[in-house]
Amino acid sequence: MTPDDRLAAQFAFLNEADRLKSVLRATTLCDGSRRENSGEHSWHLALYALTLADQAEPGVDITRVIQMLLLHDLVEIDVGDVPIHSANGKAHASTETQEAEQRAADRIFGLLPPDLATRFRALWDEFEAAETPDARFAKSLDRVQPVMANLQSGGGTWITYNVTLDQLDTRVGSKVARGAPALWDWVRAKVAPFFA
């Protein structure tokens, strides 16, 4: 690959990634004024990682966590946002959704030069698997950010999808607690009165 071809591939990926700003999520901004887009969500999560790094288990590499969070939702360019509570939690976990996300990852990361494609895809796959300490922390932040937005906006998608505290504990709390247990304890104490 020539230097010119490499730059062309890098910009093709970056231009495609710009489309993430047009993907609307179910979650609203904290003030409830409008739905956030997936680009805003990814930026906010990177800021969450930087700010809440002290909540990660020892040895977590926050730089890698930020990289995962910047990449994790790029597949939504093709698939769209699939809210965790939609279809009573089944839409998010469906095999169809996961296969569509895999195809989107192949296409989007495939725009990059091979070395970057391999590295970015590996970070995306690691985030999806949520088995390493870095990925568990990244996944925890991805789950807790919408909780905080819903809390700040007076219920947001919890109202839209008739979410119960039990569902929140199962679909969100268990994932947050895997990577940031003290963070979930604090957040849950703030959330519980909303469901009382």
UniProtKB/TrEMBL annotation:
The family database entries (InterPro entries) matched by this protein are listed as: HD_domain, YfbR/HDDC2
Q: Pfam families recorded for this chain?
A: HD_3
- Provide the protein name: HD domain-containing protein
- Domain HD: start-end pairs: 17-184
Q: Which UniProt keywords apply?
A: Hydrolase, Metal-binding
**Keyword flag Hydrolase:** yes
Classification via Gene3D superfamilies: Hypothetical protein af1432
Q: Which organism is it from?
A: Fuscovulum ytuae
Highest taxon of source: Bacteria
